[in-house]
Amino acid sequence: MHMCELPRSSFLLISLTYSVNRMVTSVVHEREARLRDGMRMMGMHPAAFYVSWALTYVILYLFVVTGVVVILVAGKAV
C-alpha cells in the first residue's frame, strides 16, 4: 500500500461512519417511539413506510458518496 492511499481510505471510512450512525440512530428512535405501529393504525400502507426509509437513505448516501468521489478524484488528479 502506498503512503498516499492510507489517508484516502481513512477519509472514506470516516465519511461513511456518520451516515451509518445517523441511520442506526433513526431506526432505534423509530422503534422506541413505535412510530410504524402508530402509522399503521392510522391506515398507512406498510410499503409506504419502507419506501420512505429507502428514499431517505438513498438520497442521503447519494450526497455522501458523490462528495467522497469528487474529493477522491480531485486528490488523485493532484
UniProtKB/TrEMBL annotation:
<keyword id="KW-0677">Repeat</keyword>
<feature type="transmembrane region" description="Helical">
    <location>
        <begin position="50"/>
        <end position="74"/>
    </location>
</feature>
<keyword id="KW-0472">Membrane</keyword>
<protein>
    <submittedName>
        <fullName>Abca1 protein</fullName>
    </submittedName>
</protein>
<dbReference type="InterPro" id="IPR026082">
    <property type="entry name" value="ABCA"/>
</dbReference>
<keyword id="KW-1133">Transmembrane helix</keyword>
<dbReference type="GO" id="GO:0140359">
    <property type="term" value="F:ABC-type transporter activity"/>
</dbReference>
<keyword id="KW-0812">Transmembrane</keyword>
<feature type="domain" description="ABC-2 type transporter transmembrane">
    <location>
        <begin position="11"/>
        <end position="73"/>
    </location>
</feature>
<keyword id="KW-0813">Transport</keyword>
<dbReference type="GO" id="GO:0016020">
    <property type="term" value="C:membrane"/>
</dbReference>
<dbReference type="Pfam" id="PF12698">
    <property type="entry name" value="ABC2_membrane_3"/>
</dbReference>
<dbReference type="GO" id="GO:0005319">
    <property type="term" value="F:lipid transporter activity"/>
</dbReference>
<dbReference type="InterPro" id="IPR013525">
    <property type="entry name" value="ABC2_TM"/>
</dbReference>
